[in-house]
Design a protein that fits this description.
The protein is 29% helix and 22% strand.
Length: 699
């Protein structure tokens, strides 16, 4: 190596692959500003392009143009590949060419080779310009060598972000490094936290899904990303793993959950704040998920109050209850900083919420789940469009209420059950259509269904147990095939489906037998079981499963051992005749039982038995309680805050015809209150009898 090339090699090695880069994503980003700063700070007198040009072989036609650099790389490999490969200045120069790609000087912004040749002071179509272009295949091999070296050293010098795709191939390597500047990496760590990505992406969120979320995150707001990255983000295709999608995915896979803050020696973990709408929509709170390894921490509003955080049930931090979200915080953002933890809320006009599986409250989420219930919190400026979108989904009427924050509205009961209406709403688009976008998957998944129970055996590979006829929906991965079809494998049989990956495919339309089923694609599948429901008598295995009880029962079901205390199923002998009972929701305002002869019996809710309340967790008590049904009563009529409902207590064929007396006005009132809630013939006969009594009283 000549002195200028060697000096650049040493500086680039220390700057991008030094000790401080161990375990971190490494991007070899060099633009005109970076080159100027490195040359100034380290006293390099030779420009980077000149240093590389001095190593080129123009005189010996039998040897490659980059022969001298290739020979150094071979000797480096023979010595055990210690330190960064000697090709670094060549690779850095190719990145410099990629950063200059723009529509100017008579070149298109896609013309990489024009900028590459220009750096050496050449102009096409000269033979030297042609040789520089053809020799870039050797430069691509140097990029592959750098990527292999970083992988083999297991992050000692940094984690590789070298990427390409089928379209760019050779020039994709330097372009992948030119897309993300150092300042972009800092912003992207904030984005990963805001979208609640887990460190090292254990859920394998795809590059296309990350790109979709990044577009949503940057829509209408300047997040501080460089114009080059924003331009690539806007032009990237929605199908296939594009160069930018692959790069962002690689950065996500390598992200350790900390902020990229080069000015700090101590890396701080960052967590995206979530919004929680509690107390049936009457209260708004901040929620922060606990970060691994930090069970307690102190954070503060810059220049303001300090809060002590402690890890609590559900893997969330307690301690923010006194910090009430305001309209200003929702609109302009919220940031809490500590020595080892940063909590941040990124401002947005529309917030999607879904029920938290541990907390039982509505919490902000990243994507819409078709078939599931959602709430939407919308600023007044977005209410009109949100109202139009949710109404276009069809199905049940969405309730629109005031929110706990002035200037915002709350939409409750948002659900997509009509696949066609859902797809049309998404295709129509709009400024806030992203709030209804489901996750873009690269694996098949299951959702919804009439679930009997989750799989209680950890690691058994079963998605859950469902009632036959109520199989779950199949969420398909996005298709890369030209015809848009996805090959679906169900119990070993393969079929091609032309389906919108945003809309779940209802497996309940396929007649499936009771038992275990496997469904998915050739690359990913899930197992679920179907059951015909409750058995007459004791089902097999009753008593073999239970809840371990040491004073208070644990909420996880497990196999009951012979020794130890368990809450489990009971075996009642035939000599014991249990009373007839009906389930009554705990939210009913009033409930009555009706017989065919004008009898009305008030169904009183019984409180949870003392043994149950003391031994079971609060969330295990369930939404319903049992009420005893006297002999002869066949209907349960009840009222909630929303409406009246009716439920048959015996099979329709066993319901006797109505035979009330003319003065059974209370019976008639109860029947007519729920008259439109059922259309089975037996109930309609009771409604007709009640109307006769009502008319007689009016007369």
């Amino acid at each position: 190596m000549r002195a200028g090339y060697k000096h650049w090699y040493e500086v680039l090695s220390a700057e991008f692959f030094g000790e401080g880069h161990a375990g971190r994503s490494t991007v070899l980003y060099v633009d005109d500003e970076v080159e100027r700063d490195l040359a100034r700070d380290h006293g390099i007198g030779t420009p980077l392009a000149q240093a590389v040009a001095d190593e080129l072989n123009w005189g010996d036609a039998e040897r490659p143009l980059f022969w001298r650099v290739q020979r150094e790389c071979e000797m480096w490999a023979q010595r055990g590949s210690k330190g960064a490969p000697p090709s670094l200045p060549v690779l850095a120069l190719s990145v410099l060419a990629a950063t200059r790609m723009a529509s100017s000087d008579g070149m298109l912004k896609t013309n990489f080779y024009g900028r590459w040749i220009q750096l050496f002071g050449e102009r096409p179509p000269s033979w030297r310009a042609n040789k520089l272009e053809h020799a870039f295949q050797d430069v691509a091999a140097m990029w592959e060598e750098l990527d292999t070296w970083l992988e083999q050293t297991c992050g000692l010098y940094g984690a590789s972000t070298v990427s390409t795709d089928d379209f760019y191939w050779k020039i994709g390597y330097p372009i992948s490094q030119a897309l993300v500047r150092g300042s972009d990496r800092q912003v992207l760590t904030r984005f990963f936290a805001a979208t609640r990505l887990r460190p090292h992406n254990p859920n394998e969120v795809s590059g296309r899904e990350l790109l979709r979320r990044l577009r949503v995150w940057t829509t209408g707001r300047d997040r501080g990303l460089s114009p080059r990255l924003m331009e690539e983000l806007a032009s990237a295709a929605d199908t296939g793993e594009t160069l930018i999608a692959g790069l962002v995915k690689r950065l996500a896979d390598d992200w350790d959950g900390t902020l990229h803050e080069p000015e700090r020696e101590h890396r701080r973990r960052v967590v995206g704040l979530r919004l929680m709408v509690a107390d049936r929509g009457r209260r708004l709170e901040w929620l922060a998920e606990a970060s691994d390894g930090i069970d307690e921490s102190r954070v503060a509003v810059p220049g303001g109050r300090t809060f002590t955080l402690r890890k609590e049930y559900g893997d969330v931090y307690g301690g923010l209850e006194s910090l009430h979200p305001s309209a200003q915080q929702l609109a302009h953002g919220m940031r809490l900083e500590g020595d080892d933890l940063v909590l941040e809320w990124v401002p947005q006009d529309v917030v999607l919420l879904r029920m938290h599986r541990h907390l039982g409250e509505w919490v902000s989420t990243e994507y819409f789940e078709p078939g599931e219930q959602h709430w939407i919190l919308a600023a007044d400026s977005a209410v009109g469009e949100v109202r139009s979108m949710v109404n276009a989904l069809g199905g049940r009427t969405v309730r629109e209420t005031a929110s706990p924050v002035v200037g915002w509205k709350l939409f409750k009961g948002v659900r997509a059950v009509n696949g066609g209406a859902f797809a049309r709403t998404l295709d129509r688009g709009g400024e806030h259509a992203h709030v209804l976008q489901p996750q873009m998957r690269h694996r098949a998944a299951l959702s919804g269904g009439l679930r009997i129970a989750s799989e209680y055996r950890a690691g058994a590979g079963v998605a859950g147990h469902f009632l036959r006829g109520g199989a779950p929906d199949l969420l398909l991965p996005a298709s890369d095939s030209p015809d848009g079809c996805v090959e679906v494998v169900l119990d070993g049989r393969t079929e091609k489906l032309r389906a919108d990956p945003r809309v779940p495919f209802p497996l309940c339309l396929i007649p499936l037998e009771e038992g275990q089923h496997r469904v998915g694609t050739a690359h990913s599948s899930q197992v679920f079981t179907l059951h015909d429901g409750l058995h007459e008598g004791l089902p097999p295995g009753t008593g073999a499963l239970g809840y371990p009880c040491g004073g208070t029962a644990r909420p996880e079901l497990s196999e009951a051992e012979d020794s130890g205390a368990f809450v489990r199923g009971a075996d009642a002998p035939d000599s014991i005749r249990l009373p007839r009972t009906a389930l009554v929701r705990s939210t009913v305002l009033e409930a009555v039982l009706l017989d065919p002869y004008g009898g009305v019996h008030e169904a009183r809710q019984r409180p949870a038995p003392a043994w149950m309340a003391s031994r079971l967790p609060q969330d295990a008590l369930g939404p319903c309680l049992e009420t005893e049904v006297p002999e002869g009563f066949v209907w349960l009529v009840y009222r909630t805050s929303a409406r009246w409902s009716v439920k048959a207590l015996v099979a329709a064929a066993d319901i006797p015809p109505p035979a009330p007396s003319g003065g059974d006005y209370g019976w008639a009132y109860a029947v007519l209150s729920a008259a439109p809630r059922s259309h089975i013939p037996a109930w309609l006969d009771y409604v007709a009898a009640a109307e006769t009594i009502s008319r007689r009283r009016g007369a």
